[in-house]
């Protein structure tokens, strides 16, 4: 492992490297504005450390725009240590306030003066659409404001020339995910964690008493939180501002609730966004819904309003990684900006960090509200973007069972099997596949206990209500084993024939991928295997070829990060202590690397980046230097198989010996706790959506073959469904085989290695960072129906 960074070669002019970017002589101001959101601190930390790393001065602007207007002690230079230990803290340490003064020209004049005095001409704003609109107005007026200040004799002409342009880059911090132009805003995932924690707790009490619970979540103008939490907990009914229920919804909802009770469901969950409306734009309140259920059905009903609980608490791993990526990208964008560059927002598209014009995003966000005000609800949903529309369609498909008379039977049987180690989200994926399959007219068959169970004929039909309440369950209810199908091929083929299985959905890790490769090779000798086969990657180690994210890895990273937070807390209490933490993952360093980035670790040892004794020595020296500062603790993550000889014990003993008199050492092996626990909201949602998408693919393939007695022998009939950059893609296993290192059971190329330098930079190591392609600003797309939905 080279502490000066990952060796990397530029490909043409598309890649710009950090060496070309210098912040020397530049000053960056960072402020948080509007409603707070978990993860804002991670963004502030990334901006400060990246700014200092490239040689710029970075200033905290306290209390948002109010601090910018008031100046004085509200604008303070930040150093490396001033953002230590804030990664795991919710809210924003630099404060946020609503500011009327900044809306006036006088207020902005005062703000411009305060910035020029300190030579700040780069502004990083973390907030919602109102905050970012304010920043853009300020930028457009900048030269006029400076001219006016010079006229009034407050600054001289040299200042006007020297600080002629203000560069503005925004990051969206909002728990509502109500900003167009990005798939996820900072804080949304953490807010979903708070909601799902409450829903899981409420479900147990509701079940005991056969109660109905009406849960009100935040979202005055955007129903994202209500929709995704409804999808993630399998709510009976969801009320959103963008998609009001049709006329006569009261009766429809009551029928749905009573049908669910008749199916022996002991509880009902109804989720309401605080801004929920009907088609006449009249509010629908949680109390109104409670009254309706009580009077019409006589059910014992309770209302829970979550309120500001959703804004609080520690940020999730997803938000910490997202905010760290955005913060670094924002600094790079500011350094690359020219007077002609429009103000941009650093956003997330699929799994890619991209820059989009601020004005376009704000305009489209306002267009959504306008469409809702004018009753154009279908258009409002489309304007929200592909992620929102995909969520809504999936929710409708899985929440409401069509009457049998409306479902056209396909005459096809689809098998579902779990393979490999258990991963959180597997059950959500099974539930989604079963319901999507039944809606398409298929008969769904559950295979129990992996391929061993398959060979023994442990296969049963599974119905709509059999999978009720599965989304929040960890592990694998169907049972899963690591056994490969190799020695059972004869029996499996016989079982497929006996049960007339026309398609197979395999949910699992690397074993699921290997199984599909075996099936592809065995098709010549077993014609029963000539059916559409789809693999859904589900493994905590995130090492299945053909996808950048696997089901279960988000839950596992959250487990790693929560433990690291507690360990850091213990270390800061005892002072001068370094913890060595071992993570799972086989030869794949994803958990160690991303866990280190989200927990603010000092180093992470992984198999993909070989290291030697000199690197270990360099890390010890780095920690020795760190102990001289106010941050007297260290955190080092090690992937379980990163090196045959540099074991966790060896590294622990080496650090203990070399650190004698400076720091002491402790080690911790996290083990199987990384596999357990309830799935995170991300994994519940991801599992639900990709599984529904897989069933769509299977249905399309089966329709093509209907009545033709077609056998599936082509490569494109055995695929892995995964997320690649910005889209969900089906990739044939025959092609993915070439991209796989079968010896170490990992893909040959892994996208997250690009984030490795990020972890090093934020831990104060030198590293070469590859920034987004050419730093181009992309236009916000008004997406059509045909595009596959990202997460």
TrEMBL record:
Cofactor(s) required for function per UniProt: Mg(2+)
Binding site for beta-D-fructose 2,6-bisphosphate: 482, 577, 584-586, 640, 666, 672-675, 745
Positions of region (C-terminal regulatory PFK domain 2): 413-791
Catalytic activity: beta-D-fructose 6-phosphate + ATP = beta-D-fructose 1,6-bisphosphate + ADP + H(+)
Example of a GO MF term: monosaccharide binding
HAMAP family in alphabetical order: Phosphofructokinase_I_E
Summary of the function given for this chain in its UniProt record: Catalyzes the phosphorylation of D-fructose 6-phosphate to fructose 1,6-bisphosphate by ATP, the first committing step of glycolysis.
Similarity section: Belongs to the phosphofructokinase type A (PFKA) family. ATP-dependent PFK group I subfamily. Eukaryotic two domain clade "E" sub-subfamily. Belongs to the phosphofructokinase type A (PFKA) family. ATP-dependent PFK group I subfamily. Eukaryotic two domain clade 'E' sub-subfamily.
Protein known as: ATP-dependent 6-phosphofructokinase
Source organism: Rhinolophus ferrumequinum (Greater horseshoe bat)
């Amino acid at each position: 492992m080279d502490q000066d960074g990952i060796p990397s070669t530029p490909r043409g002019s598309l890649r710009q490297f950090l060496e070309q970017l210098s912040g020397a002589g530049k000053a960056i101001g960072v402020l948080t504005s509007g409603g707070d959101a978990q993860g804002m601190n991670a963004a502030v930390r990334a901006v400060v450390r990246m700014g200092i790393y490239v040689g710029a001065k970075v200033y905290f602007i306290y209390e948002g725009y109010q601090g910018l207007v008031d100046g004085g002690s509200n604008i303070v230079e930040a150093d490396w240590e001033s953002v230590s230990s804030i990664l795991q803290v919710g809210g924003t340490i630099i404060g946020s306030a609503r500011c009327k003064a900044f809306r006036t020209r006088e207020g902005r004049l005062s703000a411009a003066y305060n910035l020029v005095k300190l030579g700040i001409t780069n502004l990083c704003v973390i907030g919602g659409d109102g905050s970012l609109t304010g920043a853009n107005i300020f930028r457009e007026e900048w030269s006029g404001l400076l001219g006016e200040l010079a006229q009034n004799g407050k600054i001289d002409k040299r200042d006007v020339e020297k600080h002629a342009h203000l560069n503005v880059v925004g990051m969206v911090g909002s728990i509502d995910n109500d900003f167009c132009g990005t798939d996820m805003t900072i804080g949304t995932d953490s807010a979903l964690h708070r909601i799902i924690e409450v829903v899981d707790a409420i479900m147990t009490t509701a079940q005991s008493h056969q109660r109905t619970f009406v849960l009100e979540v935040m979202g005055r103008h955007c129903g994202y939180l209500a929709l995704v939490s409804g999808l993630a907990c399998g709510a009976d009914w969801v009320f959103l501002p963008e998609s009001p229920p049709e006329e006569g919804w009261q009766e429809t909802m009551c029928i749905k609730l009573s049908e669910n009770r008749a199916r022996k469901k002991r509880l009902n969950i109804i989720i309401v966004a605080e801004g929920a409306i009907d088609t006449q734009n009249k509010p629908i309140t949680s109390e109104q819904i409670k009254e309706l259920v009580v009077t019409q059905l006589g059910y014992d009903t309770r209302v829970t309003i979550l309120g500001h609980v959703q804004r609080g608490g520690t940020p999730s791993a997803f938000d910490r990684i997202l905010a760290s990526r955005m913060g670094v990208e924002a600094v790079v964008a500011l350094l690359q900006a020219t007077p002609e560059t429009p103000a941009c927002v650093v956003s997330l598209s699929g799994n890619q960090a991209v820059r989009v014009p601020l004005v376009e995003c704000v305009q489209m966000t306002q267009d959504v509200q306008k469409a809702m005000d004018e009753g154009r609800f279908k258009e409002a949903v489309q304007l929200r973007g592909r992620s929102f529309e995909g969520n809504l369609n999936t929710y409708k498909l899985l929440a409401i069972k069509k009457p049998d008379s409306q479902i056209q039977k396909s005459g096809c049987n689809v098998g579902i099997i779990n393979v490999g180690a258990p991963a959180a989200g597997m059950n959500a994926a099974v539930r989604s596949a079963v319901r999507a399959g039944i809606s398409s007219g298929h008969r769904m068959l559950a295979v129990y206990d992996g391929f061993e169970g398959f060979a023994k004929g442990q296969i049963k039909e599974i119905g709509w209500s059999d999978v009720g309440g599965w989304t929040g369950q960890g592990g694998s209810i169907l049972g899963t084993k690591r056994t490969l199908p190799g020695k059972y091929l004869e029996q499996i083929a016989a079982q497929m024939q006996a049960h007339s299985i026309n398609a197979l959905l395999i949910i699992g890790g690397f074993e699921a991928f290997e199984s599909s490769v075996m099936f592809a090779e065995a098709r010549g000798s077993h014609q029963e295997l000539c059916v559409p086969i789809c693999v859904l990657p589900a493994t905590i180690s995130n090492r299945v070829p053909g996808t950048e994210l696997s089901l279960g890895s988000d839950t596992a990273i959250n487990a790693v990060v929560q433990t690291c937070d507690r360990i850091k807390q213990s270390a800061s209490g005892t002072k001068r202590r370094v913890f060595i933490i071992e993570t799972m993952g086989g030869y794949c360093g994803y958990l160690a690397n991303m866990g280190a980035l989200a927990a603010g670790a000092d180093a992470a040892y992984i198999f993909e980046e070989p290291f030697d004794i000199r690197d270990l020595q360099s890390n010890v020296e780095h920690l020795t230097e760190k102990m001289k500062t106010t941050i007297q603790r260290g955190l080092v993550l090690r992937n379980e198989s990163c090196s045959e000889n540099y074991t966790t014990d060896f590294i622990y003993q080496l650090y203990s010996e070399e650190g004698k008199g400076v720091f002491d050492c402790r080690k911790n092996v996290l083990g199987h706790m990384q596999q357990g626990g309830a799935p995170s909201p991300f994994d519940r949602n991801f599992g639900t959506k990709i599984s529904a998408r897989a069933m769509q693919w299977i249905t399309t393939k089966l329709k093509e073959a209907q009545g033709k007695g077609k056998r599936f022998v082509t490569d494109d009939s055995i695929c892995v469904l995964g997320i690649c950059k910005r889209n969900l893609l089906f990739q044939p296993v025959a092609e993915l085989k070439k991209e796989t290192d079968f010896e170490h059971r990992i893909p040959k190329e892994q996208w997250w290695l690009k984030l490795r330098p990020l972890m090093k930079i934020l831990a104060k190591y030198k590293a070469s960072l590859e920034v987004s392609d050419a730093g181009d600003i992309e236009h916000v797309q008004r997406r059509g129906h045909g595009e596959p939905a990202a997460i």
